């Protein structure tokens, strides 16, 4: 046993607090420490995941209070995979941003503290089994995200951050409302307990709670009318932070939403709602993406579209659908992060980050451009890269559920996606460089980070079996609500004995 | 057999007959004489019954008809056209101007005697010669051909240097391909 | 390890090695490239036999690769052209940039074409299909000309087709729980009625995009014209045939089982014929050889599509035969254009004239190819066209045969334009220095032109594998019936009637050529093209009197009513309309934080208002 | 071997017959034209003289290999179509190479020669030649439509692509196809006007305008071969029409009568017509003649 799930939260939180202290002793340590912590967490996550796959869900109880009352962490195949993914992304983004703000110690310190908080919060959202605890983690994540958005202290980034804050506080409000509703009705905050008692709630309260949850979590999960903050935040935040948003934060939001819908309440119509809202998100944001002339905004909108697709896949609700959604989630995390990471080097020295300023970068930044193209191909879903499998599994799941019209819609939206990504690739490789742009060579650690992502894309593309076994278990775990309740609650019983 | 003199004679007779009765005319309408050709060719005088017929290009033509005075400028083109024609070829000088300059006898840029520049087989006198005269000219040419005496082209080849000298004398910028017969 | 795995490993590994070798040395790169193509060809023909299969599974999808006799017909095109084009491109691409990139994509597209032919299941079919698309796309934009136009057009239409196919595949998968193509074939008659209509339509969308059929053809002329000629020969010759490959499968396995397939067949056949006519007219209007050949490719594919759609055994035979022939002659012609481009730097008819004496071998091979294209006996094109007409008449497609014939007659116009524009006309001082292309470029052309002649006289060489392939598709053998019945072929499929005619043609030609040569041999002289009968005027050295501007103006004036409307403008209008619409919609994201807050509130209100209908 | 000799002999005989008949027709054309224009006109054998004269020209020039071979190409078309088209009913006297599918073969071989010659014309570098060729090809795209429509109508009506079969049909029923398929005949005859390139469709080689177009650089022996080919081809085409529409012929005299009657149509139409521009002529062929062609196909398909 390397450790227990609680370390996923304790260690990075501790590290976040240690960073300024250690920084006083040895300046370089503020850079190294997060990496060490994340590496440890990654090893831990992978070992735990292996274990979970064979022996079943690990439920850890904090502070000795047994489940219905105490806080517990659930490391099931489903949450485990998400946590592992987030930690992996966190680690890669750490590699990428190792030299970030190299000269400025204070800034770097802030960055790494906030980054660790972000990872902690996101992992916490996924692992926790307590609904109020989840709220707390959401707040941790959000606050560090606000701060990271405004990191550059420009006018624009402050504005973006403020928008995020505005909408985010609304989100907290609604979340809190929902939690209050539940607590007043059921007197419990434990997810498993709520799930087992949900039928006792009055239906109108239940629906109200679901609606508030959808709104509150929807803001984090970036569903359509609630995602106005996304493009600004993604575009104004530093490149690695954008990647972290796409690869970590959104995933946590989606997880929370899915958990509410799949496990907590069995309100009818939520699956259809997911599909409708996912499709709307996808269509509108892809349409917006094609009209963007700034690279990062385009990537942000595209990210919204992808998340919409993931929601649709979850909304199908079958085991296949969830499997496909997980696949899409992983692909999006890897592909979009790669795009953000490499894209921010492509427009490194330009003030406005216009797409036209990537012209001709293929000649000057061959590796970065190649990886960007690879990421774009993966995100678009070109075989034999990883994105294709996700899309294919999603399609076949939808077809099994007899949702042919949805497939057609998704495919036509994919066409739009394809167009704007290929436009950028064309610009990178076949246009003449704008004279006022001086390309910036990526640092070694950045190249390593991006190349790792590229290799993962290729490996999954050529050998999807690598993860599909885990994903099948994960999707079964999500669907098997009874087992979740039993796992959590029985752990409590065990302790009492 | 082919080299046999008698058979060669027969072949010559047939060939001359054919050449004589099939005259494809390239009418070089230089001067006012060109106006006499339409009546010659059309219903009234109908030169086609003699086998005379218009040719479109020098490559296909047998007879070059110089209808009237020649300026030095047109002379160059006429020489070019003549040199592009295929053997056997004949030249008919048409009207007084080709013989001695006619009414342009003292013009500074008109050719007075055509046969100083190209070998003329038949001159048709008159200013203008009437279609009857033209027809009689063709008949005369046919007789010459039958007799094998219409050998202007041969003369041109033999005395090329003399002709060239005369031609270059009046044509200032001589930029022409070599004559390759 | 199975030979099929080795084949793909070889091609894929070769591609990567070639890409890497580019950094090391040019010679190594070229050698690796050619060796990869050669080795895989040899491997395919010696070690992989018809009927070999290999099973494996990815993520619980069981897949199968293998080769059948039908795939072998097309593998002939792919590998044959691949070998020719690889030799050609080594010489053609010499001294250009980004060769590693080019060769990599070249090999990947060859590999994916082989993959398409060897996929027995729909998923690997789709994967290879998409790989073929992007690898060819990357070559289309290789020259960097019109990237956003031709490249994006190509990728949009390809993706449109590919997504249609993906949709069809998941429909099949959801319904039969199997991805095997044979399973699909067997299950198709029992599909629900709506599936029976939609599946062929979706599949055909994918395949007709690659085969450049009428409403979906707009990408083709630009894409063919803008990619390097070394690849266009493969692109137009082999890659477009993948569309035909798929179409034939759809017609054989699906359309045959439609309750009423006549309208379906007629629609596609007519679309093919209209493609042929319109593309021919547009080819006539072009002044650039690349464009001309590109449109001509579209037109030729139109005939093939018609043949496929009519679908009688003879029509299918002709479509397959024409596919092989088209691959040969169009590849030769594109290579010839490439050779001219390499030697003179331009491909415009209005700029280059009179190359016949400078590039005689290129001229001879393109002459043969043009004769094949025009369908004049005794070259291969005639056999195919003859079978097409015969089949159309036998299957009572009266107007269709006129349409095809019109296209094929008008094709003479651009055929002549091609030969005249480059090789004939006045020989200019400007092009005096031009020399024959390097041997490595000329040889493939000569070989293919010779093959065209051989296949024209002995079509049986090609017809027999085609016949085997058609038997795989469920046709009864055509060998005994059609070949001998038609009177043109003997039982071996060779042109028996053509032999005396060929003697007659050859004899007459020789006899009169001898007369022309011997008669007055000494008095016959060669004169230059400056020595022409132009009203006694001598053209100066720099005066080019060749007629090349507005070459077919009168004809185009006669047909201008049908050429007024271009498909492209409609698509452009649609695209612009869509973008404007997107732009309008995009303003939902106003960039104003207050608006976003309002959205949240409104969303909540809406959810609360409709909560019963949503979650009731 | 014996067979080859037999066929060669047949070919030579047919060639001589076709040549003499064709060239006489062309001479008669000139004579009749002259009479219509109220002239006396040349003798009927004038074209013989012209041909001999062209042959006895001493020198000639060419602009390259293609130009040199051009007339031979067109001769191939003339001779091969003569060999494929049955001259008399039942292949009497003139051995023939016809086969099932020869109609389609003919359609293509009839293009072979003009295209080959066009290449030769192109090599001369004379702009007039190239212009003439483009006009000729455009016009060909025009008249091939009604012509093919007529042929297709016959093919589908009698389920054959062989000329001999069509002839047999007429011999057996005793009815000429000209009467049983009148629209096909009309369309074909209108197409024939274009095929003969007499006025109003003589824009290809209009002497006053293009200096005889594709032939403008040909003289002497080249023109000789082309003229002979033209006369042979004239005869071949007329024979084809007689075979298809007018029941063929049992002996040469009937053939000559029939072909000459047919020949009068383009000749007289030509004498009395001015000249069409290219696009006008192309559109003309796609107008009424094609309409008749369609009617012919309808007739064949429905009845």
Question: Could you give the distance between the termini of chain C?
Answer: 59 Å
| Individual helix count of chain A | 20
Label the structural class of chain A: mainly alpha
Task: Tell me the greatest interface.
Answer: C-D, 76 and 83 residues
**Span from first to last CA of chain A?**
23 Å
Please give a structural write-up.
The complex is a heterotetramer of chains A (497), B (181), C (616) and D (303). Chain A has 497 residues and is mainly alpha-helical. Chain A has helices at residues 6-25, 29-55, 77-96, 105-127, 131-149, 155-186, 191-197, 203-221, 229-236, 239-264, 270-290, 295-316, 319-346, 361-364, 366-380, 386-400, 404-430, 444-462, 465-479, 481-496; strands spanning 58-61, 72-75. Chain A has a two-stranded antiparallel ribbon. The model of chain A has no long low-confidence stretch (mean pLDDT 87). Helices cover 41% and strands 12% of the residues of chain B. In chain B, helix 1 (5-21) packs antiparallel against helix 5 (131-146). Chain B contains seven helices and five strands; from the N terminus they run H-E-H-E-E-H-E-H-E-H-H-H. The model of chain B has no long low-confidence stretch (mean pLDDT 84). By secondary structure, chain B is of the alpha/beta class. The two termini of chain B are 28 Å apart. Chain B is globular, with a radius of gyration of 17 Å. Chain C has 616 residues and is an all-alpha fold. Among the domains of chain C are: 265-479, no CATH class; 565-615, no CATH class. Chain C contains 24 helices and three strands. By secondary structure, chain D is mainly α. In chain D, helix 1 (2-36) packs parallel to helix 11, helix 6 (163-173) packs across helix 10 (221-245) and helix 8 runs antiparallel to helix 13 (288-302). The chains are: A mainly alpha (497), B alpha/beta (181), C mainly alpha (616), D mainly alpha (303). Chains in contact: A-C, B-C, B-D, C-D. The interface between C and D is large, with 76 and 83 residues. Strand 3 (524-526) of chain C pairs parallel with strand 1 of chain D.
What is the fold's blueprint, element by element?
The complex is a heterotetramer of chains A (about 500), B (about 180), C (about 625) and D (about 300).
Chain A (H helix, E strand, L loop, with lengths): L5 H20 L3 H27 L2 E4 L10 E4 L1 H20 L8 H23 L3 H19 L5 H32 L4 H7 L5 H19 L7 H8 L2 H26 L5 H21 L4 H22 L2 H28 L14 H4 L1 H15 L5 H15 L3 H27 L13 H19 L2 H15 L1 H16 L1
Antiparallel strand pairs in A: 1-2
Helix pairs in contact in A: 1-2, 1-4, 2-3, 3-4, 3-10, 3-13, 3-18, 3-19, 4-5, 4-10, 5-6, 5-10, 6-8, 6-9, 7-20, 8-10, 9-10, 9-12, 10-12, 10-13, 11-12, 11-17, 12-13, 13-15, 13-16, 13-18, 13-19, 15-17, 15-18, 16-18
Chain B lengths: L4 H17 L1 E6 L8 H5 L10 E3 L8 E5 L4 H13 L5 E5 L1 H5 L21 E3 L6 H16 L5 H7 L1 H11 L11
Parallel strand pairs in B: 1-2, 1-3, 3-4, 4-5
Chain C lengths: L2 H22 L1 H22 L5 E6 L2 E6 L2 H24 L6 H20 L3 H19 L6 H30 L4 H7 L5 H18 L8 H8 L2 H25 L8 H24 L3 H22 L2 H32 L15 H15 L5 H15 L3 H26 L15 H19 L2 H13 L6 H7 L12 H21 L5 E3 L26 H11 L3 H20 L6 H17 L1 H5 L1
Antiparallel strand pairs in C: 1-2
Helix pairs in contact in C: 1-2, 1-4, 2-3, 3-4, 3-10, 3-13, 3-17, 3-18, 4-5, 4-10, 5-6, 6-8, 6-9, 8-10, 9-12, 10-12, 10-13, 11-12, 11-16, 11-21, 12-13, 12-16, 13-14, 13-15, 13-17, 13-18, 14-16, 14-17, 15-17
């Amino acid at each position: 046993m390397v450790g227990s799930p609680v370390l996923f939260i304790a260690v990075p939180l501790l590290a976040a607090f240690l960073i300024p202290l250690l920084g006083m002793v040895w300046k370089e340590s503020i850079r190294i420490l997060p990496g060490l912590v994340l590496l440890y967490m990654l090893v831990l996550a992978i070992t735990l995941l292996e274990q979970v796959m064979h022996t079943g869900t690990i439920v850890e109880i904090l502070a000795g209070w047994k489940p219905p009352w105490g806080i517990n962490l659930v490391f099931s195949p489903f949450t485990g995979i998400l946590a592992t993914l987030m930690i992996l992304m966190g680690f890669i983004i750490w590699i990428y941003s190792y030299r970030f703000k190299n000269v400025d110690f204070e800034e770097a310190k802030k960055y790494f503290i906030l980054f660790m908080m972000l990872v902690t919060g996101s992992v916490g959202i996924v692992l926790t089994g307590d609904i109020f605890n989840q709220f707390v983690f959401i707040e941790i994540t959000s606050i560090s995200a606000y701060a990271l958005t405004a990191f550059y202290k420009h006018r624009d980034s402050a504005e973006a951050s403020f928008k995020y804050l505005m909408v985010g506080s609304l989100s907290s409000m609604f979340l809190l409302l929902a939690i209050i509703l539940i607590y007043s009705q059921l007197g419990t905050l434990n997810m498993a307990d709520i799930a087992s008692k949900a039928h006792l709630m009055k239906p109108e309260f239940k629906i109200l709670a679901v609606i508030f949850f959808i709104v509150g979590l929807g803001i984090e999960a970036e569903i359509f009318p609630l995602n106005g903050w996304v493009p600004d935040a993604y575009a104004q935040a530093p490149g690695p932070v954008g990647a972290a948003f796409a690869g970590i934060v959104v995933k946590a939001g989606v997880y929370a939403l899915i958990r509410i819908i799949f496990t907590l309440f069995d309100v009818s119509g939520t699956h259809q709602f997911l599909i409708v809202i996912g499709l709307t998100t996808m269509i509108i944001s892809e349409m917006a993406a094609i009209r963007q002339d700034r690279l990062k905004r385009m990537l942000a909108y595209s990210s919204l579209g992808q998340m919409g697709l993931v929601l649709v896949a979850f909304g199908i609700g079958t085991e296949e659908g969830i499997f496909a959604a997980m696949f899409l989630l992983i692909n999006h995390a890897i592909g979009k992060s790669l795009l953000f990471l490499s894209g921010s080097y492509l427009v490194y020295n330009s003030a406005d980050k216009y797409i036209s300023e990537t012209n001709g970068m293929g000649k000057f930044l061959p590796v970065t451009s190649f990886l960007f193209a690879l990421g774009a191909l993966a995100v678009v879903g070109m075989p034999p890269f990883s994105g294709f499998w996700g899309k294919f599994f999603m399609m076949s799941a939808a077809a099994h559920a007899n949702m042919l019209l949805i497939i057609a819609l998704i495919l036509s939206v994919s066409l739009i996606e394809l167009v704007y990504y290929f436009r950028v690739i064309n610009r990178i490789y076949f246009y003449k460089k704008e004279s006022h742009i001086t390309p910036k060579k990526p640092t070694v650690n950045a190249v390593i980070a991006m190349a790792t992502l590229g290799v993962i894309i290729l490996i999954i593309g050529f050998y999807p079996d690598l993860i599909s076994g885990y994903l099948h278990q994960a999707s079964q775990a999500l669907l098997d609500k009874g087992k979740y309740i039993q796992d959590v609650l029985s752990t409590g019983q065990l302790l009492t004995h | 057999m082919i080299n046999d003199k008698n058979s060669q004679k027969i072949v010559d007779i047939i060939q001359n007959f054919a050449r004589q009765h099939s005259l494809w005319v390239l009418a070089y309408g230089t001067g006012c004489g060109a106006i006499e050709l339409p009546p010659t060719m059309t219903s009234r005088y109908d030169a086609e019954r003699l086998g005379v017929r218009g040719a479109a290009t020098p490559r296909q033509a047998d007879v070059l008809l110089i209808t009237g005075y020649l300026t030095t400028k047109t002379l160059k083109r006429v020489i070019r056209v003549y040199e592009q024609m295929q053997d056997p070829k004949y030249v008919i000088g048409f009207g007084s101007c080709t013989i001695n300059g006619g009414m342009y006898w003292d013009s500074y840029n008109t050719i007075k005697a055509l046969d100083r520049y190209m070998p003329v087989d038949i001159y048709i006198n008159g200013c203008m010669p009437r279609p009857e005269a033209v027809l009689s000219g063709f008949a005369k040419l046919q007789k010459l051909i039958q007799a094998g005496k219409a050998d202007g082209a041969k003369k041109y080849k033999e005395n090329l240097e003399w002709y060239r000298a005369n031609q270059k004398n009046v044509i200032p910028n001589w930029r022409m391909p070599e004559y390759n017969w | 390890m199975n030979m099929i795995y080795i084949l793909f490993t070889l091609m894929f590994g070769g591609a990567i090695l070639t890409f890497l070798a580019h950094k090391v040395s040019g010679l190594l790169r070229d050698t690796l490239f050619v060796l990869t193509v050669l080795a895989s060809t040899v491997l395919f023909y010696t070690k992989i036999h018809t009927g070999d299969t290999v099973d494996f599974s990815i993520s619980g999808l069981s897949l199968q690769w293998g080769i059948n006799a039908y795939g072998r017909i097309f593998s002939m095109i792919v590998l044959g052209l691949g070998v020719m084009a690889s030799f050609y491109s080594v010489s053609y691409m010499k001294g250009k940039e980004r060769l590693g990139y080019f060769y990599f994509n070249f090999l990947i597209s060859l590999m994916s074409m082989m993959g398409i032919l060897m996929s027995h299941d729909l998923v690997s079919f789709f994967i290879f299909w998409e790989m073929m698309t992007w690898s060819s796309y990357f070559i289309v934009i290789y020259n960097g000309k019109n990237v956003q136009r031709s490249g994006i057009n190509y990728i949009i239409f390809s993706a449109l087709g590919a997504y249609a196919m993906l949709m069809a595949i998941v429909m099949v998968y959801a319904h039969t729980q199997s991805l095997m193509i044979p399973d699909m074939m067997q299950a198709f008659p029992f599909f629900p009625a709506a599936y029976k209509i939609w599946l062929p339509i979706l599949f055909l969308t994918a395949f007709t995009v690659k085969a450049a059929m009428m409403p979906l053809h707009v990408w083709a002329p630009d894409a063919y014209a803008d990619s390097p000629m070394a690849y266009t020969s493969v692109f137009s010759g082999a890659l477009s045939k993948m569309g035909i490959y798929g179409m034939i499968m759809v017609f054989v396995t699906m359309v045959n089982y439609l309750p009423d397939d006549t309208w379906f067949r007629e629609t596609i056949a007519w679309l093919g014929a209209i493609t042929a006519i319109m593309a021919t007219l547009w080819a006539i209007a072009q002044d650039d050889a690349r464009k001309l050949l590109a449109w001509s490719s579209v037109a030729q594919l139109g005939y093939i599509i018609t043949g496929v759609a009519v679908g009688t055994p003879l029509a299918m035979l002709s479509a397959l035969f024409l596919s092989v022939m088209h691959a040969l002659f169009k590849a030769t012609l594109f290579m010839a254009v490439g050779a001219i481009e390499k030697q003179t730097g331009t491909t415009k008819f209005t700029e280059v004239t009179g190359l016949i004496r400078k590039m005689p071998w290129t001229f001879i091979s393109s002459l043969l190819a043009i004769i094949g294209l025009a369908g004049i006996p005794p070259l291969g094109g005639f056999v195919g066209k003859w079978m097409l007409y015969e089949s159309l008449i036998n299957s009572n497609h009266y107007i269709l045969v006129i349409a095809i014939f019109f296209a094929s007659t008008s094709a003479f116009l651009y055929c002549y334009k091609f030969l005249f524009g480059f090789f004939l006309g006045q020989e200019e001082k400007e092009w005096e220095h031009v020399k024959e292309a390097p041997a490595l470029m000329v040889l493939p052309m000569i070989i293919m032109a010779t093959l065209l002649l051989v296949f024209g006289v002995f079509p049986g060489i090609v017809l027999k594998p085609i016949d085997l392939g058609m038997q795989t598709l469920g046709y009864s053998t055509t060998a005994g019936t059609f070949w001998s019945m038609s009177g043109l072929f003997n039982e071996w499929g060779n042109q028996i009637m053509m032999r005396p005619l060929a003697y007659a043609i050859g004899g007459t030609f020789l006899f009169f050529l001898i007369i022309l040569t011997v008669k007055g041999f000494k008095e016959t002289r060669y004169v230059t093209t400056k020595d022409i009968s132009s009203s006694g005027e001598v053209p100066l050295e720099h005066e080019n009197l060749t007629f090349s501007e507005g070459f077919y103006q009168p004809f185009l004036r006669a047909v201008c009513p049908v050429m007024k409307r271009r498909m492209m403008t409609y698509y452009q209008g649609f695209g612009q309309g869509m973008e404007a619409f997107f732009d309008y919609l995009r303003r939902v994201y106003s960039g104003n934080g207050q608006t976003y807050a309002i959205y949240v509130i409104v969303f909540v209100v809406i959810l609360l208002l409709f909560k019963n209908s949503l979650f009731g | 071997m014996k067979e080859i000799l037999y066929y060669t002999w047949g070919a030579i005989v047919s060639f001589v017959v076709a040549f003499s008949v064709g060239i006489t027709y062309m001479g008669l054309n000139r004579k009749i034209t002259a009479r219509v224009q109220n002239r006396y006109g040349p003798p009927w054998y004038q074209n013989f003289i012209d041909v001999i004269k062209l042959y006895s020209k001493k020198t000639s020039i060419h602009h390259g290999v293609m130009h040199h071979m051009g007339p031979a190409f067109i001769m191939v078309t003339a001779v091969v179509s003569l060999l494929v088209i049955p001259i008399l009913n039942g292949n009497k006297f003139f051995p023939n190479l016809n086969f099932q599918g020869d109609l389609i073969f003919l359609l293509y071989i009839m293009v072979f020669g003009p295209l080959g010659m066009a290449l030769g014309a192109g090599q001369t570098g004379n702009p007039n030649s190239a212009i003439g060729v483009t006009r000729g090809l455009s016009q060909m795209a025009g008249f091939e439509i009604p012509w093919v429509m007529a042929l297709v109508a016959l093919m589908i009506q009698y389920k054959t692509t062989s000329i001999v079969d069509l002839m047999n049909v007429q011999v057996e029923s005793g009815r000429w196809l000209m009467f049983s398929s009148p629209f096909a005949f009309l369309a074909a005859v209108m197409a024939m006007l274009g095929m003969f390139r007499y006025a109003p469709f003589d824009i290809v080689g209009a002497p006053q305008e293009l200096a005889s177009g594709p032939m403008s650089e040909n003289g002497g022996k080249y023109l000789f071969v082309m003229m002979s080919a033209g006369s042979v081809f004239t005869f071949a085409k007329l024979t084809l029409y007689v075979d298809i529409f007018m029941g063929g012929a049992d002996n040469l005299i009937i053939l000559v009568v029939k072909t000459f009657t047919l020949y009068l149509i383009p000749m007289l139409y030509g004498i009395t017509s001015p000249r069409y521009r290219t696009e006008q002529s192309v559109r003309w062929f796609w107008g009424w003649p094609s309409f008749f062609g369609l009617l012919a196909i309808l007739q064949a398909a429905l009845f």
